[in-house]
Amino acid sequence: MSGLNNLHPLACRKLKAACSRGVFQGKTPDATPPRLPTMAPTEAVSGPPLQEGGSDVINPTTESNTMDRRSLIKHAGIAGVLAAGAAPAVHAQAAIRWRLASSFPKALDTIYGAADVFAKKVGEMSGGKFSISVHPGGELMPAFGVVDGVQQGTVEVAHTCPYYYFGKDDTFAMGTAIPFGLNSRQLTAWYYDGNGLKLFREFYDQYNIVNFPGGNTGAQMGGWYRKEIKGIADIKGMKMRIGGFAGKVLTRMGGVPQNIPGGEIYQALEKGTIDATEWIGPYDDEKLGFYKVAKNYYYPGWWEGGAQVDFYVNKAAYAALSAENKAIVECAASHAHTTMQAMYDARNPGALKRLVAGGAKVLPFPKAVMDEAYKEAMALYSELSASNPNWKKIYTDYSNFRKDQNLWFRFTEAQFDRYMQSAKL
Hints:
alpha/beta; 6-stranded mixed β-sheet; 5-stranded mixed β-sheet; 14 helices
């Protein structure tokens, strides 16, 4: 069988065994096997169509003695097919490259850092086949322009606070925090086990956005003030940098809200352009240096009981992903969501101690200020429910969930926390 010498050795053995069993038409087990044509190892195997009845036959009377590919697989095994260059084609999955536009400065390794956590996890889970580059606010587009960037497809994903965009629709605010709203645990519960994610997916669809929770700061501090706040009168006329939607309540109380990106706040406070500012809490506030120009540090941030940051993904870009990559995005976002909250909870205590040592005066808001803020917030929500169908649809579910959550937390978390905070540890 000189023609077999050019085949893979395993293929030769298989074919010789087939010959000895009389699989070739017109031959008996002790007949001389037919001469096969010489085939280079990389040559594709071709042959006549199947005989009627579906039997795979090699006809020794034909000059070519070519073999049907299926006969070769049957008698020679996969080794022979590989040797003959007939292996099925394997198509490598194309690498995916996305850009993420953040609304935050890179110096804030907590709130900005959550986007890095997300991108790193996507890369790890995809084996490096899905990479996302992260860009701080202002690098690709203005810090507050990232929603337009995602909506228009300029970037595939953004990491931002939804309430920055209340100017488009007040409903955006509930995606982050509203005054006297849900705390971080409650908001996460509403999104993942309540109707939060479903309702906001429906809302964001009109903006070509698919949203994912992407971090939470926990309850925030009430900000830095040049002068002490002793009553409602001290709020009137006060120019304060305050995040998005909460400014509506501040306005109703007589204050003058300013919406300024995080990287620009210090200069405004230092120059006296504003009288007060809030940001997040001790760890980030220390980095931004507010305590150097305003010593009065108030709590709590009643407008942000648990401020959530979101990943906004372009709808078309997300739809183009495979089911596997969609799952990777979802899991990486959840991981970043948990990690960001953990970073704040772990790092804020030490930062608060350092701020106090540096001269910060930590003070509670007077009850009269809290009561006035609550009254104005509830009045605002009633007005919005009467005028904005998007707001009403989501807020109705949100407020019902908030009522039940506060009933439950009153008997568990709150009571436990009050006792532990009064205990000598």
